[in-house]
Amino acid sequence: MSLVVSNLHVAIDGKTVIEDISFSVPDGARVGLIGESGSGKSLTALAILGLLPDGSTVSGSITWNGVELIGMPDRKLAELRGDEIGIVFQEPQTALNPIRTLGRQIAESIRIHENVTRAEAKTRAIAEAARVKLPDPERIVKRYPHQVSGGQRQRAAIAMALACRPKLLIADEPTTALDVTIQADILTLLRSLVTDDGMSLVFITHDLAVLSQVATHAVVLEHGRVIEQGPLTTLLTAPKSPITQGLLRDAQATLWRAPETPESTGADA
């Protein structure tokens, strides 16, 4: 299955925020959308998912496996989300309900899309918690979001997104709110899960150093437009646009300043 975005335009309350964006994500590809704050990368993801705010108008084309998503009824889009397209947001509090246990929320994401019993979904939830390397899965699924660490909340959100084995994962800055060591653990986990399941990935970030750990291709955005795109190795070694050159300098500066840290055991992540 592949995602193709062609000549995408988005306006909110009459103001153009995305203009003529085009890129594709072939089956099994790992593509990054990268740019500074306000570049339109998250809005592009929301357009793909059909989650743009009220007052938005969209034109162009977004196809998933040859099926046009723009104009698709909300009910069908909702069925697609979580079943064929998984979503992980920057802050897991956005995805997690504070008054329901982690296990119940993972199980609910399974029951929404699959014809399974509550008992089967509960068993699956524990297995999914183990798959994302949450410690002591049978115990931790009984906890509420506020009772676990930020890294563990993000792992639970990833478990929810991938429980039904989607073919495409959209991850919108999923590690920005985490500290450096836990961030590395989550990136390693995502890369492993995407590879093991043969998923396609759209990874959104402002950090080229982070993107280099999970993606093979990148689309650079500025003010809602594509500035440059291509293999990540090319952008890292021969960036053409000033924006990409600036992102590369920022990444190099971050790596230069980063202190050495002991390898994480994942216990607190």
From TrEMBL:
Gene3D superfamilies reported for this sequence: P-loop containing nucleotide triphosphate hydrolases
Keywords annotated in UniProt: ATP-binding, Cell membrane, Membrane, Nucleotide-binding, Transport
Transmembrane annotation, as ranges: none
Protein localization: Cell membrane
Membrane topology: Peripheral membrane protein
Domain ABC transporter: 3-248
GO molecular function: ATP binding; ATP hydrolysis activity
InterPro entries: AAA+_ATPase (IPR003593), ABC_Ni/Peptide_Import (IPR050388), ABC_transporter-like_ATP-bd (IPR003439), ABC_transporter-like_CS (IPR017871), P-loop_NTPase (IPR027417)
SMART domains: AAA
SUPFAM superfamilies, sorted: P-loop containing nucleoside triphosphate hydrolases
GO cellular component, one term: plasma membrane
Keyword ATP-binding appears in the UniProt entry: yes
Pfam families for this protein: ABC_tran (PF00005)
Family (UniProt): Belongs to the ABC transporter superfamily.
Listed PANTHER family: DIPEPTIDE TRANSPORT ATP-BINDING PROTEIN DPPD, OLIGOPEPTIDE TRANSPORT ATP-BINDING PROTEIN APPD
Protein name per Swiss-Prot or TrEMBL: ABC transporter ATP-binding protein
UniProt source species: Microbacterium mitrae
